[in-house]
Design brief:
Length: about 300
């Protein structure tokens, strides 16, 4: 199931790209700005600002939707929602207050769309990037997409946290041109407090990718109260530097300061938001990270 297909993307690998966002993630980072990509199944988003006064259409024959006061918000019993009840409500809603996230497509259907922009990829040095969620939650789909991309001569990249068993990854090591890998922290306990994941699994996979000669680029999200301190950033940069020293590669490290663009989506999904409500604005910390990377022989790239 995919969340979205984004054409003409320029921040998810080189050149102009189409990004395929697959649904489902094994980490659930607290700062995630794409909460609609966490679950592998269909999600329902409700925006009460678009709800029409006096309307009751979604509540008809659908007990999961209740509107006691005709001008108030619709109450959604999310625990009892099934896919068909979600579709029923979204179809009934005339204003777009209810929308769905998730579409089941075959790899061939996805690639049909991706290949529409092949000429742009060739001219710009771009291609396809598979993102998520965590793409390797759909390992067969990833393999299939990459095989078609390879057959068509389209450059491929993946954005992954690598929090999956190695046997999910290994079959595509030779099919992928670029691995955009998150380096979020170096402390396993802190990592576990802020995500649902085991850092050791990720580090093992990074190492294995190095041993297989994979073309890796590290990306560091900088998150308030999680890793926005100099010692932690220095340790992350050091790890990236050691990887490149040992296994070779681009030597690039990308810094992604925390933003809150996706915060409102938590509300639309009926979820609590448990991270900072302001974007990270610490120019001195970013300057430190850039300098530290330079000192370690890395090329630092700051992503807005
Ligand atoms: S159908 Fe849409 S506009 Fe009407 S009450 Fe339900 S959510 Fe609001």
């Amino acid at each position: 199931m995919i969340c979205n297909l984004q054409r003409y993307a320029t921040h998810d690998g080189p050149g102009i790209r189409t990004v395929v966002f697959l649904k489902g993630c094994s980490l659930s980072c607290r700062w995630c700005q794409n909460p609609e990509s966490r679950s592998r199944s269909l999600d329902l988003l409700y925006d009460e600002r678009l709800c029409i006064s006096g309307c009751q259409r979604c509540t008809k024959n659908n007990d999961c939707f209740q509107r006691k006061d005709s001008t108030g918000a619709v109450l959604i019993v999310r625990e009892q929602l099934t896919e068909s009840l979600m579709r029923q409500a979204a179809d009934a809603c005339p204003s777009g207050a209810i929308s769905l996230c998730g579409e089941s497509l075959q790899a061939e259907q996805i690639m049909q769309q991706v290949l529409r922009d092949k000429a742009f990829y060739q001219r710009s040095g771009g291609g396809m990037t598979i993102s998520g969620g965590e793409p390797f939650m759909h390992r067969k789909m990833v393999q299939h997409l990459l095989q078609i991309a390879r057959d068509e001569g389209v450059h491929s990249a993946v954005e992954s946290c690598l929090h999956v068993p190695w046997n999910y990854i290994e079959p595509v090591v030779d099919l992928l041109d670029l691995w955009l890998i998150d380096l979020k922290h170096v402390d396993a306990e802190k990592f576990l407090q802020w995500t649902d994941g085991q850092l050791s699994l990720i580090q093992q996979n990074i190492r294995r990718l190095g041993e297989h000669g994979a073309n890796v680029v590290f990306r560091v999200p900088i998150i308030p109260d999680f890793n926005d301190d100099e010692p932690t950033l220095a340790a992350i940069i050091q790890q990236a530097s050691e990887h490149y020293r040992q296994f070779g590669g681009s030597g690039e490290i990308h810094f992604l300061p925390y933003h809150t663009y996706g915060m409102h989506k938590y509300h639309l999904l009926g979820l609590d938001y448990n991270c900072a409500r302001q974007p990270l604005e610490r120019p001195e910390l970013l300057a430190f990270a850039e300098q530290q990377a330079k000192d370690c022989g890395l090329t630092a790239i700051l992503r807005g």
